[in-house]
Amino acid sequence: xxxxxxxxxxxxxxxxxxxxxxxxxxxxxxxxxxxxxxxxxxxxxxxxxxxxxxxxxxxxxxxxxxxxxxxxxxxxxxxxxxxxxxxxxxxxxxxxxxxxxxxxxxxxxxxxxxxxxxxxxxxxxxxxxxxxxxxxxxxxxxxxxxxxxxxxxxxxxxxxxxxxxxxxxxxxxxxxxxxxxxxxxxxxxxxxxxxxxxxxxxxxxxxxxxxxxxxxxxxxxxxxxxxxxxxxxxxxxxxxxxxxxxxxxxxxxxxxxxxxxxxxxxxxxxxxxxxxxxxxxxxxxxxxxxxxxxxxxxxxxxxxxxxxxxxxxxxxxxxxxxxxxxxxxxxxxxxxxxxxxxxxxxxxxxxxxxxxxxxxxxxxxxxxxxxxxxxxxxxxxxxxxxxxxxxxxxxxxxxxxxxxxxxxxxxxxxxxxxxxxxxxxxxxxxx
Length: 431
Description:
This protein has about 425 residues and is α/β, with parallel strands linked by helices. Helices cover about 35% and strands about 25% of the residues. The chain folds into two domains: about 1-25 and about 270-415, LarA, C-terminal domain (2-enoyl-CoA Hydratase, Chain A, domain 1); about 35-265, 3-Layer(aba) Sandwich (Rossmann fold), CATH 3.40.50.11440. A six-stranded parallel β-sheet has the order 3-19-15-16-17-18, with helices on both faces. Strands 6-5-4-9-12-13 form a six-stranded mixed β-sheet, sandwiched between helices. The longest helix is centred in the first third of the chain and has 14 residues, at about 75-85.
């Protein structure tokens, strides 16, 4: 059987034997009228008044969007949303578009224009969140003794709107919803709690898990304290086309979207595979190896201990975080890393990504990487092997590993072996 794996903006073909487990999202047709669907969602929200009614009388609005590392259809969502605000009497001068960068770099220049469109970039103030700027945040509460510090531009608005994308997420269970605030608009001090060693090591902090997930619970506490009047989140298919929009209040609208994602993107297996082939999800998700770690995390969940994972990723922008590479290279393994970074006083940027990656390696025997952009020297710190001919390498591996599973879309689909609780009924892979 033939599959294709996204690799940057390209696709890489691969032939696998009959009987291989192919885990792909259920087919979802793209919307015929995406902007019309956004308008319908704004007018018929879940657990909230229609946005036009909600916005009446508000003096200052803040619309939160995701940064360029997420394939959110901002240019579909924003025009009808901004028209609704205008109809409610909230003019352009009283609306700020705030990019929830989390700990990522700012989006500027043409990158920003591509994010929101030329007209919006030229006529609305678009501001990047900066987690390092202490003066740009206010403390609104505590989490586990750590301060909850949120962007002041957001806090100062009396109409707070969140936009984003709902998909499986290795920490929050699902992205979107309150995650736009925490970690999207939080300070580095707050991130020291949210991405602490203890948090990332918690067994319920994982893909497609909300119940008793302390990461998800913390995002909801922050949203309650900071306020969130309305959300509009997209769901996309494997071509990254919008298939529906979840709009309304938290948590109802977000949970409705999560249920839909679980129906389409969570597949349960009877047993783990010997060999797992995955991807970084294609552009823009796989622009850096830092982001491609999510492809390894979803592979970990269905790979037997000591098995092999093959990761296909574009990584046109390189590693994405030299600190991440240095953290992985400097430690002697998961145990040495835990010995140092389990102490909150040793917290450093990107330790959470290194921790997740090392936890995955502890289960997986080895990781092979097919990437046109990354060199052997760049990959060496991560303890992985670069491969140059994907089909040839996989053919060789198939002689050694009889049970193979493939996740062509990488982090956009989640395979689970256990029979844990779910938001909806099971979607079991049938041979």
